[in-house]
């Protein structure tokens, strides 16, 4: 790099010795230093934070050095630089800023001249005195800057008084040098090359699509404030840019529409007025334009059931659509009749919110941002009738569960069954379900008026006691009998029976219990009420094991509990209740369903028992497993 001295415009403000501040003169492009330099006691300092504004101020580290410390010294502390002139001469000073990522350095020249030294030899001699007289007499013409450098008394004009002061200075020392030298410091710029501050990110373009990108302002920097950078672009090897790509040097913008895919390495060069340069390489990737393909409907769901006053289920809409390009899809949904049901989309899920009863559709749209596809989801909103939430627990291997729904739909003529998304018409008003594998299944029974009953069937494994209640009958007027069956291959032992009775006189429940005799495998244990006198006449039984006082004018059974070693093995009725409700309001007979081989911890009338009207006596004493 070559030195560049732009001006020598010395502005001598005052005359002082080395113990005073130097007299300063600034070149036109040294304004940054003139505005920040302070001087005191022959020394100078300046804060350079603003001068390095292209760098991170929080991480800025500053250093300073002089090419000739004998003429002027340079040092830095923090972001402040310090200078001290020593003698006549010239030195190049370097101030450098570094933020750990980028580095900027500014070089400038300090020319130190002893006041009164007309020829720059560093001495004041009679030759300098003679030169002043020649100027006074008009024999020599000097510039204003030179005149101020010879103005020893600082009155703004050259007179014999200045020549006299020079001679006194000369005669004051045997070497011809002043005992108390006075200096003039002239600052001038030395050109600095631009530098790369922040390398641009790689660029991507797409064939047949317009591309435009502007080089960031902080890509290059030049510490010389007067330098305006010009920018140019070429391929990395110096060849011109391809025809499709142009670079506007005025606003540093790339523009064009590529026709083919591929890769380019583009070199951007920043140049200052002295032709000093900095450059960076930018990777360009041109991708083949992909013609967007619209999303497709690839799935469907059966008619969705919504229940009034019950939070609706959600449907994963992503299962209904796919995108051939693999684009991410966004979903919207709207109900065609929001008085029946509304739709709320969250991500890819849509929740159905019932508002009334009837049928409607949800219009569902999937979009990839450029194209879309739509489909419809049928929705039926129903209202569950009072008491229409029916829970049934049965066991694997049991015979069919039968639920009479006529009390819930006394007027309905068209009834639909719906299970696992499959609908069918119900013939009659009885729902029959054959238990299979363990698990839970829901069956909806829906009338044409959109009234509904939900039957939830829980199928559980055959666990529990193999000595269990197999029949209970209440034929009225004390004709009460209880049958317990041993389905195991061993004789029973250690069982007790609790009879929970409602005492009408006391208005509370009482519990009577007793131990049971051992029962052989395959046999029944029959207990009858003590007033069931025609037991053998009405039933097929040929024996009973015990008589218990189960019924009378002031008491009747509300529950039975079979226990072993204090643990509940089987139950009829509700032993945990406190009220007077009998097992049957109007009497009747229940027998354990075929296939039931174990007892249960709670009474499951619909799931484990077959019910018959009062007066059904023929099953007593002969359980069919």
UniProtKB/TrEMBL annotation:
Dockerin domain mapped to chain residues: 111-179
Q: Which SMART domains match?
A: CADG
Please name the GO terms that the record assigns under molecular function.
calcium ion binding; hydrolase activity, hydrolyzing O-glycosyl compounds
Coiled-coil ranges per the record? none
| Residue spans crossing the bilayer | none
**Nucleotide-binding among the record's keywords?**
no
Give the matching InterPro entries.
Answer: Cadg, Cadherin-like_sf, Dockerin_1_rpt, Dockerin_dom, Dockerin_dom_sf, EF_Hand_1_Ca_BS, Ig-like_fold
Q: Return the GO cellular component terms, semicolon-separated.
A: membrane
| UniProtKB keywords | Signal
User: What span is annotated as the signal peptide, if there is one?
Assistant: 1-27
Does this entry carry the keyword Signal? yes
Q: Name one GO biological process term.
A: polysaccharide catabolic process
Q: What is this protein called?
A: Putative Ig domain-containing protein
Q: Which species expresses this protein natively?
A: Domibacillus enclensis
């Amino acid at each position: 790099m070559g030195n560049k001295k732009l001006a020598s415009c010395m502005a001598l403000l005052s005359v002082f010795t080395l113990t005073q501040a130097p007299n300063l003169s600034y070149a036109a492009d040294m304004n940054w230093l003139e505005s920040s330099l302070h001087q005191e006691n022959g020394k100078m300092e300046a804060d350079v934070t603003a001068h390095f504004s292209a760098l991170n101020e929080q991480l800025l580290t500053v250093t300073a050095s002089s090419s000739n410390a004998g003429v002027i010294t340079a040092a830095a502390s923090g972001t402040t630089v310090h200078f001290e002139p020593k003698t006549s001469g010239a030195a190049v000073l370097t101030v450098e800023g570094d933020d750990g990522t980028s580095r900027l350095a500014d070089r400038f020249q300090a020319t130190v001249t002893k006041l009164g030294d007309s020829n720059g030899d560093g001495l004041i001699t009679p030759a300098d005195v003679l030169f002043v007289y020649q100027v006074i007499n008009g024999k020599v013409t000097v510039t204003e800057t030179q005149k101020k450098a010879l103005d020893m008394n600082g009155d703004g004009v050259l007179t014999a008084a200045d020549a006299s002061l020079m001679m006194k200075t000369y005669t004051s020392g045997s070497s011809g040098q002043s005992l108390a030298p006075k200096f003039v410091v002239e600052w001038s710029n030395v050109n600095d090359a631009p530098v790369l501050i922040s390398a641009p990110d790689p660029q991507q373009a797409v064939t047949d699509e317009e591309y435009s990108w502007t080089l960031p302002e902080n890509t290059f920097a030049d510490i010389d404030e007067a330098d305006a950078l010009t920018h140019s672009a070429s391929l990395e090897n110096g060849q011109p840019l391809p025809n499709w790509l142009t670079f506007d040097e005025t606003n540093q913008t790339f523009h064009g529409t590529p026709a083919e895919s591929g890769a380019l390495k583009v070199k951007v060069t920043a140049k200052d007025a002295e032709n000093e340069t900095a450059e960076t390489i930018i990777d360009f990737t041109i991708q083949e334009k992909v013609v967007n393909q619209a999303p497709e409907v690839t799935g469907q769901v059966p008619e969705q059931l919504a229940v009034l006053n019950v939070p609706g289920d959600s449907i994963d809409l992503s299962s209904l659509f796919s995108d051939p390009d693999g684009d991410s899809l966004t979903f919207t949904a709207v109900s065609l009749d929001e008085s029946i049901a509304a739709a709320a989309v969250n991500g890819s899920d849509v929740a159905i919110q019932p508002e009334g009863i009837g049928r409607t559709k949800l219009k569902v749209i999937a979009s990839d941002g450029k194209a879309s596809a739509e489909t419809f989801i049928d929705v039926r909103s129903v209202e569950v009738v009072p008491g229409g939430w029916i829970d049934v627990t049965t066991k694997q291997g049991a015979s069919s569960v039968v639920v009479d729904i006529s009390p819930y739909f006394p007027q309905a003529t068209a009834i639909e069954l719906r299970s696992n998304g499959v609908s069918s018409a119900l013939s009659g008003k009885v729902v029959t379900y054959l238990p299979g594998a363990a698990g839970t299944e829901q069956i909806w029974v829906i009338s044409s008026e959109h009234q509904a009953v939900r039957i939830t069937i829980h199928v559980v494994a055959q666990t529990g006691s193999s000595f269990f209640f197999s029949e209970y009958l209440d034929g009225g007027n004390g004709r009460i009998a209880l049958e317990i069956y041993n389905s195991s291959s061993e004789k029973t032992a250690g069982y007790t029976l609790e009879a929970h009775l409602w005492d009408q006189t006391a208005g509370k429940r009482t519990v009577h219990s007793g131990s049971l005799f051992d029962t052989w495998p395959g046999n029944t244990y029959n207990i009858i009420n003590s007033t069931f006198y025609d037991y053998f006449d009405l039933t097929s039984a040929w024996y009973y094991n015990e008589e218990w006082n189960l019924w009378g004018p002031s008491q009747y059974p509300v529950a039975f509990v079979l226990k072993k070693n204090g643990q509940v093995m089987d139950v009829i009725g509700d032993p945990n209740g406190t009220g007077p409700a009998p097992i049957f309001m109007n009497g009747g007979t229940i027998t354990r369903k075929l296939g039931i081989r174990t007892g249960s911890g709670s009474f499951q009338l619909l799931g484990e028992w077959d019910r018959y009207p009062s007066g059904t006596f023929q099953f007593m004493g002969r359980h069919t497993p």
